[in-house]
């Protein structure tokens, strides 16, 4: 066995893993993440390194391999564990070790650390009095003034000494030299959680909640650290379950990380944790300054907190003894990094948990296909919460078939059904949410009369409209002309689907002049806390209707909302990638789940041109299992994740011809090194955005049954790229099981 070791994590140039042999006396005690001492370089200088993994074979001449000298006294320091995690990420997602380390280790702080200085009296009362007389005798007024203040209060804040008593530093120094007083400093941490006392609501767990907690706890107490998937309908009390699990883990002296999508990280959510854990909880989010973020990491490292809440990056909190990672809304796209290494927080959390003997709890009302697939395979433990915690039933959902609206003379974007229900709610003083699903790429082409959508004959994803090219498949590059008439029904009403939130706000105001309307989208939330302000205004019932994009689906509870209108379900349904059905089901279910959270039962209207599409039908029935079965059949048929694995190789270059040649070489090389395992190669195709800032882009897809096969392919391709100068002007990135098409 050989140990893989990183020598110096601060040096940009040493982006390399070195192999060392393991002396037999260390064989049993060495593990990943340990700090070791190794001979390094020409002079074999003893240097600090971190073990990031082990290998059975070594890639160099065994005679030249050096031996690990010793394990440093620190053993597994938290940095070591995170370095090992970074090595895992580099291996699984591609990129360099330095890129992985930058994601994982807290930013080295350039910013000044905030320090509080204090002056402490070193003399006892009697000695102090004597000294004071001496100063007065010598007419050393400033010294006397300071000492007399210290005799009143032996520890003084330096700011105060300086400003209020008007004492210059030279005088403080003089007292220090004479052994009268000493200046001390203490690190002060910025704490982003603003204190606000509020008692925690006492609740009695439902049987389902209790079972979930006990199941987890029995495993945990017996050191069976597993991954759990809590599938719980919206409002079933998942958050309460997380809090209880964390409370028990924290009692054993270990720490927990809670990942939440940034968009759902509201004041309301943080307060629920705060009420239970007080000052022992901290948060991370993108609106904190670099200094504040750094401070939270240091507080975690020094054992000052038990719980860290934050988005994806909070996963790398340097806790000394991590016991649990919770990932709420685990199906969210934001858990996948868009920077290299393009890691997924779910997989990475599990990797970290395995290294540190911790558990992972995933939660969602609409679990990702990946998570449910693994739960059904027994890899994760499934915990179900089928009922809402209170009396409320799930909303009643109607489907409005937009194809009939045109025939019935309704040209408004609001269906007749939705208009009727809106009038009813406005009359009763209840609130309405209108949701415009815009996350999908809106370039798909559909027929306004029959709902027909143009699809790729090879990939079963919708074609996208390009201004100059016609219709294009972003997976395989297939092209066809834009149709003049619908190939299914002959109608001329075929074209691109477009609508915006602003437009909808205007329509609502025109049709319901009495309604007070709020709009939430990129434009209205640009200012700081804009998001929070609009949500609070709506929660305080300062408006009747809230119009918005997917931002409004999460976070706040609005008990007075009894109607949700989903204006264009098709928008994400025909986004041009294989996750379109899944994303649509999630959005529709989550949106409908916003209705009727208070004492009255809610209703929801899904407007669509494809009322028979399984994602729409199963979302309307709020039947996850039925959706899952249909969707997994499609993934099996097409060999898409999670059944098989997909690797996107993204290449970009300012020279288009060079890019095309490079991609051809890459593909040919990939074919050559495939070996015995089956690897499908698709493309290279032009991605949705074929050129950014005059840099051309191409994407090549590799499909294989096993993830490992793709990791191996990636390693071969990385080597090939490194040794061939032709790739010097190209940038190549890898994305495993991508969340979107490029
Ligand atoms: P989820 O995270 O599944 O959407 P929450 O944990 O936010 O659900 O619970 C929804 C609401 O129900 C919250 O206001 C919560 O305090 C309350 N709640 C959860 N469990 C119970 C319970 N057992 N008894 C009473 N109220 C509960
Ligand atoms: Zn048609
Ligand atoms: Zn295709």
Automatic annotation (TrEMBL):
One cellular-component annotation, GO: primosome complex
GO molecular-function term, one example from the UniProt record: DNA binding
EC number, UniProt record: 5.6.2.4
Residues where Zn(2+) 2 binds: 456, 459, 473, 476
Keyword Hydrolase: yes
Binding site residues for Zn(2+) 1: 447, 450, 486, 489
Keywords tagged on the record: ATP-binding, DNA replication, DNA-binding, Helicase, Hydrolase, Isomerase, Metal-binding, Nucleotide-binding, Primosome, Zinc
Catalytic activity: ATP + H2O = ADP + phosphate + H(+); Couples ATP hydrolysis with the unwinding of duplex DNA by translocating in the 3'-5' direction
Enzyme class: isomerase
Cofactor(s) demanded: Zn(2+)
UniProt-listed GO biological process terms: DNA recombination; DNA replication initiation; DNA replication, synthesis of primer; double-strand break repair
InterPro entries: DEAD/DEAH_box_helicase_dom, Helicase_ATP-bd, Helicase_C-like, P-loop_NTPase, PriA, PriA_3primeBD, PriA_3primeBD_sf, PriA_C
Note on how the cofactor is bound: Binds 2 zinc ions per subunit.
The UniProt record lists the keyword ATP-binding: yes
Similarity-based family: Belongs to the helicase family. PriA subfamily.
Purpose: Initiates the restart of stalled replication forks, which reloads the replicative helicase on sites other than the origin of replication. Recognizes and binds to abandoned replication forks and remodels them to uncover a helicase loading site. Promotes assembly of the primosome at these replication forks.
NCBIfam families attached to this UniProt entry: priA
Subunit and interaction comment: Component of the replication restart primosome.
Name of this protein: Replication restart protein PriA
Organism whose genome encodes this protein: Schaedlerella arabinosiphila
Gene that this sequence comes from: priA
